[in-house]
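Project standup — Tuesday

K.O.: blocked on the structure for the chain from last sprint. Re-posting the sequence here as requested.
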Amino acid sequence: MDTAAATGLTFRDATDTDVDALVALIESAYRGDSSRTGWTTEADILEGQRTDPEGVLAVIKSPDSRLLTVERDGAVVACCQLEHRGDHAYFGMFAVSPALQGGGLGKVIIAEAERHAHETWGVAEMHMTVISAREDLIAWYERRGYRRTGKMTPLPDGDERFGIPQRDDLQFELLVKPLAQPAE
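H.V.: unblocked you, prediction finished:
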């Protein structure tokens, strides 16, 4: 999908009234049988929930973050979190409707998120954490210019709000991408 094909998309900040739709979207992209329609499923490595209304609302309300909501024809089809963290931005809570995965929508959204973070906050890098066992997902991010750092952090232990690991080797790896400097 190129930018011209993406003109049917509307990008906006999430509001309190979006919480239920965003939780449903995020859950559908990562957990349960519905997530198996797309390729971003974590259903085989994590059970339980991916997020909850309180977690989504906290991102919406945080003064240093925004939850970018993507609509097509009035329906929420994707979202991502952007958080300003000093010299870099954090990219997280990225979800695309499983029925729309694989068509290039993710590329358009991540490019818009990077543009926004760079232009709004003047940050030089985008950071994200990805479960290191998700080689296919990491490879997708590498094709977008992200690099593996080898810096690992454990999954939150015993906090079922983030899912229940089905393997002992699950951890997050930090991925980093330098953002383009503006032309002079």
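K.O.: great, moving the ticket to review. The longest strand covers residues 75-85. Strands lie at 9-13, 46-47, 65-72, 75-85, 88-96, 125-131, 147-154, 164-165, 171-178.
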